[in-house]
Amino acid sequence: MAIVITQQPAFLPLLPIDDSIIVTDSYQSYLERANSLDLSLLKSKDIESAKKLLRETLAVGYSTTFLNQFIYNKDSFCFCVRDTIRNAVIGVIGGKISRSVMDSTVCTGHLMILAVSTTWRRFGLGQQLLNKLEGAFCDGSVTASFNRRTQLRSIYLQTEIANTNAIRFYENNGFSYEKLERGYYGSGKDGVVMRKHVC
Predict the structure, then answer these.
(1) In angstroms, rounded to a whole number, what is the distance separating the alpha carbons of residues 26 and 23?
(2) How many CA atoms lie within 13 A of 97 on its CB side?
(3) Residue 77, exposed/middle/buried by CB under 10 A (0-12, 13-18, 19+)?
């Protein structure tokens, strides 16, 4: 799936090409570079690049085993944006669907990871990744693997309470504050649970 740059950022950061860095002087440079981006399911060959991106952008490191669950578990999904010129993952989102213990006709989506390279932020890549994961969660053929009558009712996530940009992004996409989780990201690093009702 081709990536569409949906918005022009207020500034143009440094744009890495191979192992060098160039300064871009126009939005057109980014548009030309966007032709090299591809949004699709994460594959085994992308794991190391995705781990590198996650280490660089998130407060928590993720193992190969953690990322493999998205590839091999039929109720888990992981999409990534690849820069085909650099052969690097520059955006990744992953989550899974689980059935309610209280009501077997209800399932919930858990957005577990979302990261976009700092170079490519504010171009709408995070939005496209979120839309792709929500679409996979809401696809009837996915929830049918649980039960024909199963319906996705909500999607939830955790993010660090200090990450105000992420919280604002999720609020703009229909997520609401649900609860605080003290120490979720380690000593003194509280998390917030946010939820979006979809049905």
Answers:
(1) 9
(2) 27
(3) buried
In angstroms, the CA 35 to CA 178 distance is: 39
- Listed by start position, the domains of the chain span 14-149
Hey, what are 94's tokens? 């992953």
Q: What's the per-residue H, E or C state across 8-24?
A: CCCCCCEEEECCEEEEC
How distant is the alpha carbon of residue 64 from its chain centre?
17
Separation of alpha carbons 167 and 170, rounded Å = 5
pTM, rounded to two decimals: 0.79
CATH number of 14-149: 3.30.420.130, 3.40.630.30, 3.40.50.2300, 3.40.50.1370? 3.40.630.30
Percent of the chain, pLDDT > 90? 44
Classify residue 94 as exposed, middle or buried by CB count within 10 Å of its CB (0-12, 13-18, 19+). buried
pLDDT tens digits, 14-41: 444 444 444 444 555 556 666 778 899 9
First CA to last CA across the chain, in angstroms? 27
Per-residue pLDDT of 148-199, as tens digits, reads: 456 788 999 999 999 999 999 999 999 999 999 888 888 888 999 999 998 6
b/e map of 157-191 (b: 16 or more CB within 10 Å)?
A: bbbbbebeebbebbeeeebeeeeeeeebbeeeeeb
